Amino acid sequence: MKYLDEYRDRDQAHQWITRIQRLASRRWVLMEVCGGQTHSLLKYGIESALKDDIELVHGPGCPVCVTPIGVLDQAQELARQPDITLCSFGDMLRVPGSTSSLLQTRAQGGTVKMVYSPLEAVSFAEQHPERQVVFFAVGFETTTPATALAVLQAHQLCLKNFSLLVHHVRVQPAMEAIMQLPEVRVQAFLAAGHVCTVMGYDTYASFVEKYQVPVVVTGFEPLDLLAGIHECIRQLESGNAQTSNQYPRSVRLEGNLSARQLIDQVYEVNDQEWRGLGEIPESGYRLRAKWEQFNAGKRFGMMPAKVQNDASLCQAGEVLSGQMRPTECPSFGKACTPETPMGAPMVSSEGACAAYYRYRLPIIT
Ligand code: SF4
């Protein structure tokens, strides 16, 4: 574990914290885009160590949290059909739709199989030609190449019993939507390192120019995050917003060209609905017409997912757009806990509410 330990070194973390505290002349507002970063910031006590110097607000980068209720209902509807096996990553199983979750659907007789990769679902379809297998394809640009590969693999195997229910989302349009909110307070972004590993960060140049906010590509370990925060503060203090890569061991300017090409081969950009955030232009992917035979909605004659506003007391939209801290939600830790979640941000392993609930005690400080 030497490699990881190097990025969790306590002394170096304290040095970074001191540097940031010396640099910040005022309390700046930074948004970490990715839920994985939120968890690290809470887990290692970075949030609390810097609370007097910066305000960290949490972004929409949790794929489970932003999948709309209507799409979850569609997944459950598919799972209830007797000849269909609905395959999904584990995180999606407990997320409430309009009346129940996939786990509850399974308890009521639906067929839901947890898988660790889209190719596992393809393999299951190959081994079970008597069943229709639908993979619930959700996630950001990090998971999109793998589901594109699953389509190509199923095509190569001439599978007639494999399809996808697609709700892939793109991170940069969501950042745009946040910057266009009338009450936006975000002054700099810690961009999601793993998304940039796939997509690169060359496209952020126009974003930075338009909104004059620093975008700093950042990893997930404590020292990665502290280096990213330091770079944000440095730029904010100098009044010179730029794109910067503080995760060079994983991210290149142009990203992973093979993965990008794979996405383009199978998907095209479309407008997408986000749970709690509404429709965001060009913020998602749908299957290209060439691959429509793998569209589960078309195959099973489903109408497009009905958009349903979350009628519960859950205030996920405010949390996911950085307007509310999880602890400011009246239900946090009372009616809403990981055992009794009222919304996706408390269910998901990348959800901001779950991070606040789980990490009470700082480790670094
Ligand atoms: S604490 Fe629970 S109810 Fe409140 S925003 Fe988070 S998930 Fe929703």
Question: How are the SSEs placed, and which strands pair?
Answer:
Blueprint lengths: L1 H5 L3 H14 L4 E7 H9 L2 H4 L4 E8 L1 H4 L2 H12 L3 E5 L13 H6 L4 E3 L3 H10 L4 E8 L4 H13 L5 E8 L1 H9 L8 E5 H7 L4 H8 L3 E4 L3 H17 L4 E3 L11 H10 E8 L3 E10 L8 H4 L16 H5 L23 H4 L4 H7 L7
Parallel strand pairs: 1-2, 1-7, 3-4, 3-5, 5-6, 7-8, 8-9
Antiparallel strand pairs: 6-11, 10-11
Helix pairs in contact: 2-13, 3-18, 8-9, 9-14
Bound molecules: iron/sulfur cluster.
Your description of this structure?
The protein is α/β, with parallel strands linked by helices and 365 residues long. 41% of the residues lie in helices and 19% in strands. It has helices at residues 2-6, 10-23, 35-43, 46-49, 63-66, 69-80, 102-107, 118-127, 144-156, 171-179, 193-199, 204-211, 222-238, 257-266, 296-299, 316-320, 344-347, 352-358; strands spanning 28-34, 54-61, 84-88, 112-114, 132-139, 162-169, 188-192, 215-218, 243-245, 267-274, 278-287. Strands 4-3-5-6-11-10 form a six-stranded mixed sheet, with helices on both faces. Helix 2 packs parallel to helix 13, helix 3 packs parallel to helix 18 (352-358) and helix 9 crosses helix 14 (257-266). It binds iron/sulfur cluster. Residues 313-316, 319, 326, 329, 331-332, 336, 342-343, 345-346, 353 line the site of iron/sulfur cluster. Iron/sulfur cluster (SF4) is lined by residues 313-316, 319, 326, 329, 331-332, 336, 342-343, 345-346, 353.
List keywords for this structure.
365 residues; binds iron/sulfur cluster; six-stranded mixed beta sheet; 41% helix; alpha/beta; single chain; 18 helices; disordered C terminus; five-stranded parallel beta sheet
